[in-house]
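Batch job 17 of 40 flagged for manual review because the log was empty.
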Amino acid sequence: MAASRKIRLIMELRRAGIADTEVLSAIERIPRDVFTPESFRHQSYENMAIPIGQGQTLSQPQVVALMTQALRASRRTKVLEIGTGSGYQAAVLSRICRRVYTIERFKELLRDAEARFAQLRLHNITTRHGDGWKGWHEQAPFDRIIVTAAAASVPGALVDQLAEGGLMVLPVGQTSRDQALLRLTRTPEGVVEEHLSEVRFVPLVAGVPGEQATFIQRRGDVA
């Protein structure tokens, strides 16, 4: 039954314009039900977002596929993900990229995601509990950066950690009603921005639970 639902989902993604065979193969190989809370498991292969606790969601498969395709990643690519969540996006990326570094601000979500990575033997994913706004300076630069929560503006620290010629895909918007999915390319002359689609994500929050977070735009953020 799960196999037929997965095939139906892949066909739906194709109809939605997902043409990258590596992306479709990765989504087919990663069992989304492993990343879905038990009470929603019967909806694992529906093209819908699913709540996972802490006010976070498991993104809609179409959005995961769109963002992954927009990254233009390969087996030589080193990727930073901001917002591990359930771990599903990182798992999909792990089937395409050389190494995935992923940061999550909620310890409980990160612990569960790490257990899923171990269960599926995804050994090219490195995790960190921390503030996604700051990125992962020690491992920079990154060929690709993907952000799975919406920032009011592009975090300057993430742009700084993007390699020259690298791509960053992220949702940006002040509210859930005005979010746009952007792709940024870092060039010698500066950052080139492309608008990909309209989206709706949970907000990207600075800091980690238990620490005083700042919600103001940080100096140096890209407008």
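Reviewer: the log was empty due to a logging misconfiguration, but the result itself is present. The helical segments are 2-15, 21-29, 61-71, 88-94, 107-119, 156-160. Unflagging and moving on to job 18.
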